[in-house]
Fold this protein.
Amino acid sequence: MNGAMTASSESKLEEKKFFTSEELSLLDPQKIPQHVAIIMDGNRRWAKQQGLPPMMGHWEGAEVLTDVVNAASDLGVKTLTVYAFSTENWTRPGSEVEALMNIFELYLSKKRNLMVRDGVKLQAIGDLVRLPERVREAYYLTKQATQKCDKINLVLAMNYGGRDEIRRVIAKILEEHDRKKITSSELTEELIASYLDTAPFGDPDLLIRTSGEFRVSNFLLWQLSYAEIYSTEVLWPDFSPKQLFEAILAFQRRTRRKGGS
C-alpha cells in the first residue's frame, strides 16, 4: 500500500517537472550551482523582431521568469538572482520606466499565490527607496507572504548597480568606524562581504547572460569574482528551462579553480 502511494506520488511529481529522467541523468546532483545569477537581456530586441511595441517584450520576459524559477528549483538551485532594473535604467524614456514599474507591480501581485504554492521565497537587492511606493508595497506584501517558503530564493535586483552597492557598503562601514565599532585592521574581504546586499545568499556560482552579450553591466561586481560566465544568443523572452539546463550542463563541464592552478 505504502509502495503504491509512493509510486503514485512520484508520478505526480514527475508530471510537474520540466526535464526528463534522461536529461537529469546527464547532471551531477552534487555539482548543481547553488546560486545562479541572470542578466535578462534582449526584451526590446525580441519585441522589435516580432513587430511589437517594446513593452510587450518586457511583459513576455516577466512571464518567462516564472518557468525559469521553477525549473531552477527542480534542478536543485537554491538562489536565483535576476537583474530586473538597474540604476542606469532610470535614464530610459519616462514612459518606458513607468511601464516597467507597472509590470513590476502587477507581476509581484499576480504571482504572489503561485510563489507560495511553488515554495519560492521572494527577496530583493538594491536601493529600493527610489522605487514608486506602489511597487515597494507589492514587493513587501509578496515578501511577507513567501517568507516561510524554502524551495528556492528568488532575488530581484531592483534599482541595483554594483558600483552603487559598493558605495553604500563603504558608507555603512565609515559610519560604524566613526562610532568606533570597526577599526582599519578589521577591514577584511569577509567583513566587506557581510555588508553586501547579497550577504544572506553568498556569491553566485554561475552567471547567465542572454542575447549574446559578454558584459557584466554593473551587476554584482564584487560577487562575480570567481563565477563561471555563460552567454547565450537566445533573447530573454525566448529563454526556457531547456536553456537553463544547457547552461548548468556547461557549468558542470568546467573545472573551477578559483585562482588556483
Observations:
- The first strand starts at residue 35 and ends at 39.
- Residues 1-16 have pLDDT under 50 and may be disordered.
- The longest helix spans residues 54-75.
- The domain at 31-160+203-252 is CATH 3.40.1180.10 (Undecaprenyl pyrophosphate synthetase).
